Amino acid sequence: MFAPKAEANLPAPPPRAYNAAMSGNHGGRIVVVGAGIGGMAAAARLAQDGFQVTVVERNDQVGGRARIWQKDGYTFDMGPSWYLMPEVFERFFAQFGKKTSDYYELKQLDPSYRVFFGAGEVHDVPPDPAGVRELFARLEPDGGAKLERYLEEAAYKYKVAVGEFLYRDYRTVFDFLNWRMMTEGLKLNVLGKLDAAVRRRFSDRRARQILEYAMVFLGTSPNDAPAMYALMSHVDLTQGVFYPLGGLSAVALGLRKLAEEQGVEFRLSTEVTRIATENGRAVRVDARGPDGAAVAFPCDAVVANADYAHVETELLDAADGSYPRRYWEKRVVAPSMFLMYLGVKKRLEKLAHHNLFFQPDWNRHFDAIFKQPAWPEEPCFYVSCITKTDPDMAPPGRENVFVLVPTAAGLDDSDAVRAAYAEKTIRHVERVTGEEIAPHVETQRIFSQRDFAGDYHAWQGTALGISHTLMQTAVFRPALTSKKVSNLHFAGQYTHPGIGVPMVMIAAEVSAVNVRRNLGRA
Question: Which residues contact 45 (CB under 8 A, 6 or more apart)?
């Protein structure tokens, strides 16, 4: 097993609080709405501090988007599939005197991922920086040297971001425009755009696409993403890409186990219907239990890990919402996703664990997401085949295939539209890889806009929340603490630092600190 190297620039965690199991609960009832990654991480930290914590989840399993679907011997990760920034996970578990290896086993992928550029051109991205440098040297003249300089800058941005900005709450714009931001802003290229910064350095389209693709998973277009997000290249090209055996759901199950070891209670298949307040404070969370009966959870504080817009517009009274519906209607909404879970009764030789399929002109796809919302005609997309690393996720001799096409939120996704788009996407994979797939599919499920809205109450059916544009970054994202309800706190992808499993774990830590302060336990 590969042991990920810890980053020296990570900020020191807060002093370890005493464990409730050792000291006894000292009062303070916390209700966490939603058993996603962020909700469980916040619950574990607060229970460790001695609070009585109950996690209420509408679905029948934990993980939120990181849950599983099982059928015909296949186990599919339903949502996140990339394990990046391993030191964030190690830092979190270390606060409990634990290691990630106490809960799940990691493997570093080789190659990190495979990129299909069409017309038979395929490149593997190696797991080591020297191999990546050689790849870029083949893509354009002096590409290796250009990449080395680019990654040095990306590493600096990553060090400053993690050490100075990510593990912080921003209450006002002055918190964001602090001394470090004012003095380092030009070096971080905070006001620049990523695509422009990459184009100044690299002329080859393929090189640029490798360096910019991750912006889709941050919910934005490279043309609109702040240039400081070049730090993502340090994450996947320098640190490497990992896979937890059992899928990302193994991380979710590990977090549940950790939380339960601290004394957290989980109430699954229980849908929160209202957060009741008195005198500007949350006093009770109302819900429907598995049998449909009403159940109430009195509380001293609430951590909402559910969809932020849903909490604000549906669970709170209008007078208690910090952000009215018109606020959400003006946000740049991150993409939804057209997902296919395919059980294929043959081995697929041309696919790696992670696979990216790019078009020569990917701006047409981004325009179909952000400018003229429509089903993309010539999409770029992602395919995972986790059985390359974890054969236990499918019956013997079969492949577990996950297809993800970023799409605009709010599109019509009727059964007919979904069926046609699924056929079109599979044909594209067959054409590019040269492998027959469709006749060998024995298990299939489609998950898209209406499912994100139905299963997660996601605003407009978005898969990711709101985009990471400059004006939706840091202090410009929805606040971690309600402006109207003083003991209502948020964790998850809508808040700072934003989208992605490592980011929501960071948000959970910051939110837990806010709860302690609010209840006088800082």
Answer: 17, 95, 508, 509, 512
Selected residue with higher pLDDT from 14 and 57: 57
Contact 190, 131 (CB under 8 A): no
- Domain-ending residue, one of 188, 207, 237: 237
Residue listed under structure tokens 């664990």: 353
Specify whether 231 is located in the same domain as 262.
no
299-351 per-position pLDDT tens digit = 999 999 999 999 999 999 999 999 999 999 999 999 999 999 999 999 999 99
User: Are 142 and 222 members of one domain?
Assistant: yes
Q: What is the pLDDT of residues 222-271, one digit of tens each?
A: 999 888 899 999 999 999 999 999 999 999 999 999 999 999 999 999 99
Which amino acid is present at 183?
T
Q: Per the structure block, which two tokens stand in for 194?
A: 């990523």
Round to whole Å and give the CA distance between 381 and 365.
Answer: 10
Burial class (CB in 10 A: 0-12, 13-18, 19+), 140: middle
Q: How far is CA 227 from the centre of its chain?
A: 20
Handedness of CA 390, 395, 401, 402 (dihedral sign): negative
d(CA 492, CA 189): 26
pLDDT at position 169: 85
Neighbour count for residue 465 (Cβ, 10 Å): 26
**Dihedral, 397, 402, 403, 406 alpha carbons, nearest 10:** -170
C-alpha atoms less than 13 angstroms from C-alpha of 20 in its C-beta half-sphere: 22
Which residue in this structure is represented by tokens 């990920």? 4
Q: Is residue 138 part of a domain?
A: yes
Which residue's structure tokens are 């106490």?
Answer: 102
Q: Which domain holds residue 228?
A: 128-237
**Residue 403 resides in a domain:** no
Q: What is the chain's Cα-based Rg?
A: 22
